[in-house]
User: Fold this.
Amino acid sequence: MNDTSPEIAALVRERLLARSGAERVLMGSLMFDVARAMVLASFPSGLSELEIKSRLCDRFYGKEVDVQAFVEHLRSSQQGVGANTVGRDEVTQKA
Assistant:
């Protein structure tokens, strides 16, 4: 469904393209943050961190991502914490 007139669509596009790339990225990031907050608010309280991440993945990506494989990855990552794993900060520092 598209109930936006061509004139308004052109105006919105013109204003969006007038912004810098950094402003457009920031807009997208802020919209994602709002969407994430709305989804989190819909979850029942008391969920584990793993369950929250699993539900977020399912809600945002659905069939595009193998949620079960994602959960298994999270579990294996948690088991490896403190072992011979390289954290994100370490990778950033090496780059």
In short: DSSP finds five helices and no strands in the chain. Residues 21-42 form the longest helix (22 residues). The chain has a mean pLDDT of 88. The radius of gyration is 19 Å.
